[in-house]
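pls design
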């Protein structure tokens, strides 16, 4: 194997790991914040999350419901590649290490993994891999995100969630719900006082 090919393969692995952090930041600051691109925020936070909620019956697509707002717009991948390409070129130029094509391949692969498995989570179809442990784990990880919007920001590869403190398990989610339920004081109905007739 040539040293150039080896460099590109190593770059692929490094950039694929990096992509988890890019997804995390993109998801948090563009999908769940209206500070930057309001249309992106509306499409994801106000449409996708309202159509696909935490409960299993509303998290998954079913007959009669449109499949809109499950995948990103067609231009997302060219946009991601275009955003990263100058950085990949600059890093290769200054380090002298062949890595541009590894970077482009990593961004492309990560995008397709994200999109395909996110689609499969919301539109199950008894695919063989849907029974595999990791897919079931990732699907539950993402379903919890539909309840705790700023937790579990990675869809399929939660490296950034683990490193940045936004990873929450199903058990921790249930415990948090129980704590909130206990701390909430039930509101007593107002008693109607009889007004004395004058």
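designed seq:
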């Amino acid at each position: 194997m040539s040293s150039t090919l080896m460099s590109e393969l190593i770059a692929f692995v490094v950039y694929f790991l990096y992509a988890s952090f890019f997804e995390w930041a993109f998801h948090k600051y563009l999908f769940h914040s209206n500070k930057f691109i309001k249309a992106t925020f509306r499409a994801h936070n106000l449409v996708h999350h309202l159509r696909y909620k935490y409960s299993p019956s509303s998290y998954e697509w079913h007959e009669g419901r449109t499949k809109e707002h499950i995948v990103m717009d067609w231009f997302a991948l060219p946009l991601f590649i275009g955003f990263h390409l100058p950085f990949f070129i600059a890093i290769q130029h200054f380090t002298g290490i062949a890595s541009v094509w590894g970077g482009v391949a990593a961004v492309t692969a990560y995008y397709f993994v994200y999109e395909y498995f996110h689609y499969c989570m919301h539109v199950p179809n008894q695919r063989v891999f849907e029974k595999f442990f990791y897919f079931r784990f990732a699907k539950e990880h993402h379903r919890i995100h539909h309840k705790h919007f700023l937790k579990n920001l990675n869809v399929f590869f939660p490296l950034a969630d683990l490193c940045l403190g936004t990873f929450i398990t199903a058990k921790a989610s249930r415990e948090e719900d129980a704590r909130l339920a206990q701390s909430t004081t039930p509101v007593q109905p107002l008693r109607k006082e009889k007004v004395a007739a004058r």
